[in-house]
Amino acid sequence: MPPLELKHESVWWSTLTPVEQAELSRDDGLAPQPDVLVVGGGIIGLALAQALAAQKQSVQLIEQGTLGGGATAGSAGGVWPADQGPFHPPEFGPLALLSRDLWGRLSLKPDFNLDWRVNGFLTVNPERFQGDAPGFAAQAQELGYTVHAIDAEQVARLEPRLAPAPAGGIHCPSDAHLHPLKGAVSFARAARRGKARLAIQTKLLEIERVAGRVVSVRTSRGECRPRHLVMCTGHEAVLPAGVLRPVWGQLIATDPLPPLMKCTIGGPFLTLQLKTGEVVTGGTQAEGRNEAPDAELSAKLAEGARRLLPDVADLRFTRAWCGVRSATRDGLPIIDRAAGVENEWLAVGHHRNGLLLAPGTADLLARWMLTDEQPEELQGFGLQRLLG
User: How far apart are CA 80 and CA 176, in angstroms?
Assistant: First the structure.
């Protein structure tokens, strides 16, 4: 088979409307004394800006690039608590399930045009459930997830275009999907409606702390003196060395095709079809920072999708893109007050679950900041667990 000739372009940006693209590229300038300064304009920072603005806080967000242009643009769009949850510590579940439900409620609001679908997640890779679908499903159900073991005949009824799955599979019917950049646009729009200011092409340069408080933040566009500072950037330098590490992943996509599948499929790689018709596959994970797609990996991803959908003759991939995400060693994010600083907060290290956890992280952290009472759901996400 000849080498793939792929445009290095995310399917997410190209499927936004011109108005949506303009909202992510809009710059609102820098306010000198906001209630809260949010550093990082990915899905976590934008969700937090919206949550705080909804509580009548004056919010300034700064982003060194374009809104949603980092890990959010590299996301697969998954809201998959049941697929992800059994592989995480138990603290993950309450936050993940709360956040999924918040996404569902947000999808009903006029400002939130998300391409939201509760289309389920179907795993047909037996390595994922160690060849024991009933046992895996039972363990996941005990943790509170909606997970079912299904046999090969049920897999075929659910997704008739898939290659035969003699080992059956795992079905998570309540897992969902959305367009990650439409999610970013929606949070940005709602935050601005609440009078938040979102500044792009603005770098954090220096934080001045006095007697356990942030008193000033110097940016590439001037000084800001917020009452609270929240770090939502994925850059590892915001914490001591080794707490966060960069992990990159790659995705490829076809041009729009007729309907082929309903669920997100966990096969050799994850594969799904968007509402707009494109088939997307990938979800790889590798240590480091790789900003350019790897040609050999693209070919491997394409071959995996063709094995998964063997009777689809025109499964021709045309785009490839990467995303770099920050991860912790236990797979849980850090959602906490910064060590020894009364008015500095952290919402970092969400890795591949930033999109899933964004509304829950924002809702609970905003509540903590405004009441000074830590929500029970965030007690397992402290920084201290990673400093020992």
Answer: 6
Cα-to-chain-centroid distance, residue 232: 13
Cα–Cα distance measured from residue 79 to residue 97, given in angstroms and rounded to the nearest whole number = 10
**Reported confidence tier of residue 119, pLDDT bands at 50, 70, 90:** very high
Distance CA 353, CA 360 (A): 11
Amino acid (1-letter code) at residue 118: V
Q: How many other C-beta atoms lie within 10 A of the C-beta of residue 285?
A: 12
Q: Which residues pair with 8 in a beta bridge?
A: 320
382 token code pair: 């402290």
Q: What is the rounded distance in angstroms from the CA atom of residue 328 to the CA atom of residue 350?
A: 8
Rg (CA), the chain: 21
Amino acid occupying residue 175:
D
Alpha-carbon gap, residue 324 to 247, rounded angstroms? 6
Q: Across residues 323-339, what is the average pLDDT? A: 94
Residues 109 and 277: their CA atoms lie apart, in Å, by: 24
Residues in the chain: 388
pTM above the 0.85 mark? yes
Q: Residue 264's beta-bridge partner residues?
A: 121
Dump pLDDT digits (tens) for 31-55: 999 999 999 999 999 999 999 999 9
Other Cβ atoms less than 10 A from the Cβ of 158: the count is: 17
User: Tens digits of per-residue pLDDT, 359-376?
Assistant: 999 999 999 999 999 999
> Which domains does the chain carry?
7-74+181-243+330-386 (3.50.50.60), 118-174+244-327 (3.30.9.10)
- Pairing of β 222-224 and β 264-266: unpaired
Checking if the pLDDT of 159 tops 80, the result is yes
Q: How far apart are CA 139 and CA 158, in angstroms?
A: 23
Does 229 score more than 70 pLDDT?
A: yes
Measured CA to CA, the distance from residue 148 to residue 159 in angstroms comes to 15
The DSSP output letter for 258 is S
Q: What is the pLDDT of residues 237-257, one digit of tens each?
A: 678 888 999 999 999 999 999
